[in-house]
Amino acid sequence: MNEKEKSLKIAENWIEAMNRQDLEKMESLYADDVIDNEVPEREAIVGKKNVTKAYRELFQGFPDCKATIINHIVEGDQVLLEILWEGTQKGEFRGIPSTGKKVKLRIAYIFRIQNGKIHEIREYYDAATFLNQIGLL
């Protein structure tokens, strides 16, 4: 398996672990100083434990969330996964009380992978679509 295939496999394993809500497996794929930069948000999240905490909160807010990979591109140390993300807001999420509404978004995840670990995740999605679907716009 070449480096591009290895990097793609790591990103795919992360999505599979996310779909199982396996925080331990997700965390095992991170470098200690991993950065999760969800572009519509104000600040990046830094460090394994903090990124794990953010995904724990996501799973509490959207316990049925699922990501389906639609497309991928691998170049250098970066992997882009285009996904279809779906979930129902059944719990509080980022201070937003449960709405019971379903969300369906396309998200582009860009992973920077070095030495077999995820060093950075950048997430791009339309925040207005998200807010509209949960009934806040």
In short:
With 137 residues, the chain is of the alpha+beta class. The chain has one domain (3-133): Nuclear Transport Factor 2, Chain: A (Roll). It is built from four helices and six strands, in the order ααββαββββα.
Predict the CATH topology.
Answer: Nuclear Transport Factor 2, Chain: A
| Unreliable parts | none
Summed up, the helix count is: 4
**What percentage of residues falls in helices of 4 or more residues?**
25-40%
User: What is the CATH level 1 assignment?
Assistant: Alpha Beta
Radius of gyration: 15 Å
Q: Ends: how far apart? A: 46 Å
Share of residues in strands: 35-45%
Q: Mean of residue pLDDT? A: 96
Blueprint (SSEs and pairs):
Blueprint: H1 3-20, H2 23-28, E1 30-38, E2 45-46, H3 48-61, E3 66-75, E4 78-88, E5 102-114, E6 117-124, H4 127-133
Parallel strand pairs: 1-6
Antiparallel strand pairs: 1-2, 3-4, 4-5, 5-6
